[in-house]
Write a structure and sequence with these properties.
about 325 residues; alpha/beta; UDP-N-acetylmuramoyl-L-alanine:D-glutamate ligase; 9-stranded mixed sheet
């Protein structure tokens, strides 16, 4: 039973290090009140009470790994700007290693600013660069990966189509990982969807899968047919398909035959699904680092996602909460 293994899995993982590479983001929440209309124009006047800074994208994956008791090593790109300094400050306050963050002059740090009044989301303001990183920055990232090899046996590639994971960098990372017996886990997005060939885990959600193939699955049989096409195309070892309230499907590629397993959702009262995908891949990486089977890692990740979606906003999974929930479920 998993409840008898979870403490050992997390204890073993605690002595490991996991590398995360991808698009880092700063999430800024401006919280305040709206009580009047501006005399200058027919718009609401927003009075700020506080500004809350949180990590997003690959930085949120790094945080989830940290709160599960494992040391993350985040490699990403930020701008030489105020938002970049804010992101580094938040990570430093969480005792995360920021040495893998590369600041460049020709990009802005990806920042999503949410304006919230009385629990209502009024507006989101995005500031970001979506162009591909330069060859020099790509080389700096890859040299960072190589110089730190031997310190980790898992790499998580977290792609949000913000230009950090270029096609050439993806190919170089995967080849390096496979040559050095490092497992690669991928959370993909549309642009580079089919570039992630020969990885250990490929984890899209249903929408990402359907968008990549340009068609909607008519039923479960059609969905699994698309999954089979994907596995043949990218030759991944394991396809993990997240299905929201319908749970997770795992399709293992075993000697050209497919083994399918289903995992039901563990959420009780869904408040906010934001960040659930980050939680799944983070927890999965931690469990695999701790020596669990992939089936066990998915089951535990599913429980972790069920915990975080009960909270409003993007929150990391905490080791204590995960242990408590796994034991309570008696699985």
């Amino acid at each position: 039973m998993i409840k008898n293994k979870i403490e050992k899995i997390l204890a073993v993982a605690g002595g490991q290090r996991i590398c995360i590479i991808g698009d880092v983001m700063l999430d800024k929440y401006m919280v305040g009140d709206v009580t009047r209309i501006s005399p200058e124009a027919p718009v609401q006047v927003f009075d700020i009470r506080e500004t809350v800074l949180k990590l997003g994208g690959a930085a949120n994956v790094s945080l989830n790994i940290k709160t599960l008791g494992v040391e993350p090593f985040l490699i990403g790109v930020i701008g030489n700007d105020l938002e970049g300094e804010m992101l580094k400050r938040v990570m430093s306050e969480q005792h995360q290693d920021i040495s893998g963050l590369i600041a460049v002059n020709d990009r802005s740090t990806t920042c999503k600013t949410r304006v919230i009044a009385s629990s209502h989301h009024l507006l989101r303001i995005d500031s970001e660069s979506k162009s591909e990183i330069s060859k020099d920055t790509e080389d700096r990232i890859f040299n960072n990966i190589k110089s730190n090899s031997g310190k980790y046996n898992i790499i998580v590639l977290q792609d949000y189509n913000k230009g950090v994971l270029t096609k050439s960098l993806i190919r170089k990372i995967i080849k390096f990982a496979n040559d050095n017996n490092i497992k690669v886990l991928v959370d993909p997005k549309f642009e580079n969807f089919f570039e992630y060939k020969n990885v250990f885990v490929f984890k899209p959600n249903r929408k990402e899968l359907e968008d990549a193939f340009g068609r909607k699955a008519k039923n479960d049989e059609d969905l699994l047919s698309i999954c089979g096409e994907l596995i043949r195309k990218i030759k991944c070892d394991n396809l993990i398909l997240t299905l929201g309230e319908k749970g997770i499907k795992m399709i293992k590629n075993q000697n050209s035959s497919l083994k399918i397993s289903s995992f039901n959702t563990r959420a009780r009262n869904v408040a906010d699904v934001s960040g659930a995908g980050d939680t799944v891949i983070s927890t999965m990486a931690v469990c695999i680092a701790g020596g669990s089977s992939l089936d066990e890692a998915i089951e535990i990740s599913n429980i972790a996602a069920g915990i975080v979606v009960e909270e409003v906003g993007i929150v990391p999974i905490e080791k204590k909460s995960l242990l408590s929930q796994v034991k309570a479920l008696n699985i």
